[in-house]
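Hey all, quick one. A colleague (J.T.) asked me to put the flavin-adenine dinucleotide job into the tracker so the inputs and the structure tokens live in one place instead of scattered across chat threads. No bug as far as I know, just bookkeeping. Sequence used:
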Amino acid sequence: MTAVLPPPVAPGGGFLLTPAARSGVFSREQTSEDQLEMADAARAFLEGEILPHMEALEAWAKNEAGDSLLMIEKLREACDLGLGSIELPEEYDGLGLSLTTSLLCSEALCACASFAATLGAHAGIGTLPIAYFGNDEQKARYLPKLASAEIISCYALTEPGNGSDALHGKTNAVLSDDGSHYVLNGQKQFITNGSWADISVVFTNIEGKYSALIVDLHTDGVTRGAEEKKMGIRGSSTCGLIFQDVKVPAEDLLGQLGDAAKIALNILYVGRLKLGFATMGTAKYAITKTLDFCTSRKQFGRPVIEFDAQQGKLAEMAAWTYACDSACYRAIGDIDAQIALLPEGHTTLDEIAILRQFGLECAIVKICGSETLSRVLYHALRMHGGYGFCEEYQIERLARDNVVDTIYEGTNDINRIVLSGALVESAYMGTIPFRETLESIHSDLRDGEDTLAATGDYLAAEEIRVLHLKRALTYLTERILIGIGKDVRTEQQVLFMLSDAIMALYLAEAAFARTVQLGADHDQAGVRADLVRLALHDAEAQARSSSRDALAHVETSGLAEHLTNIDRLFGDPTMPVVAIKRRVAEHFIAAGRYDI
Ligand SMILES: Cc1cc2nc3c(=O)[nH]c(=O)nc-3n(C[C@H](O)[C@H](O)[C@H](O)COP(=O)(O)OP(=O)(O)OC[C@H]3O[C@@H](n4cnc5c(N)ncnc54)[C@H](O)[C@@H]3O)c2cc1C
């Protein structure tokens, strides 16, 4: 069975201006049997080979002897199963499967972020630059050995003085007089797999152009820094790399001189998707763990989960996760649909170019995955009481591990800047039908009319709420563009409000569309409809508060009128959330796990 692709939606925020999606949105329910089989293999590996060894995997960083063999052993076992080469071409010993399959596996390999970071640094950011931008000789030389983890890779972009501003690093390489090699000097910081990697993709200036080299880390002049003593992902290796007059063969230039931005940013888009899927998977795991605990833990003679307050939290965790899951699959579906339109014989680079167009959606997946997990773990830890604070229960580790999710693959701040920046660009450039939609909104506001109508019976009231959100946020985007005009880059606080509101809409609409598509006859239709309602309630609260704060800043006159307009556009916020949360909690308590 092959996956059913949705019709294309304009990248860069096109979803804001389309009617509420009742069909054509990809969701996990549309994944193929082959994809699910691969994800099941990944999950079985996690449960059989990783989670039982968590303590030993985490202990190595504390171990004076620096005994890291177990993590490397596990990395190689995963690669033997093909988990390190899912999207590599078969001619280089990869599985030649889709990015979607790889993302399903990222989701399945959740709950051990140390292992996920190690595998991701090797098979993702450490290998994909060679797969995407390497020449035939480089691919033949490196990819089969990377696929099996015979050699281990890492990705060295960050420097002590350049983190978010990653493309202005100081590392420098000079071509030797005979043109046979580069002489590399500089320092990289926070490199995952730094202690045990054999090769690294290293970003460096060459002749004043920021470029990338494939560097053999066993070459003279390479020094590995001390392991960082980290708050989380303690089983992974993070250290600096120092290059002192390191000779790198000229044939190990990756791509062309000046290709650093192209390589680094494109790899980041893939990294953001993978991180989003992995954190979303971990959120489900945390819900199941919390249900387990709160069902057996008794206070005042009753299981803790029977208390109304805890049920409210359980319902919130489930609703955030359902929306996040729906958004992750929606994004990759839209990306795949655009890729499907490429002409026959297209290259991997053509596919990567599509990812870049979906930079906004990739940023949403990264932010929503990492922050949904943070919110879920906030509740989960406290629902465990004192036990949540103790190492014996896994929630403590998950909470520590989650912090870095908001920092790497571009901090969530940088991703919010990417998100709002992409939307502003799409609106200015007219790549999404922004002006046309605004005209109809203004005309309705002028005439005092509300022309919103549902296009189907099932979840009709929820469809109207999605439409209200879209129109209010289109209006808000216009007011922000007018209000901050040429200061669009410096008005970051307002842009963050826009990002948060747009992201909230994306998630709620994804949950709505997924649920409508499954239909009223689906055996989980009731709880799914309630999860949509909670996601909408959350999105409305977020979007309303962001909108009012943003308007209060950008409107120098006529604020009252704009607040009235936006309140009208948002519609009636009333919703019986307490009753809805009780129904949702009842479902998950009966299921005993996150079963959606
Ligand atoms: C455990 C771990 C593993 C890592 N693995 C790797 C790896 O394998 N390879 C690699 O190359 N890097 C890696 N990194 C580095 C990571 O990508 C960077 O830490 C991250 O990009 C942030 O850079 P920084 O730490 O220098 O923070 P800074 O960039 O100094 O940021 C400090 C604060 O300022 C904010 N800020 C920065 N610029 C702006 C701006 N323009 N507008 C608004 N706010 C801004 C940030 O959001 C942040 O809150 C890793 C980091 C960690 C902690």
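Adding what we noticed when we looked at it: The longest helix spans residues 260-296. The beta strands are 153-156, 172-175, 181-192, 199-206, 209-216, 222-224, 238-249, 253-254, 298-299, 302-303.
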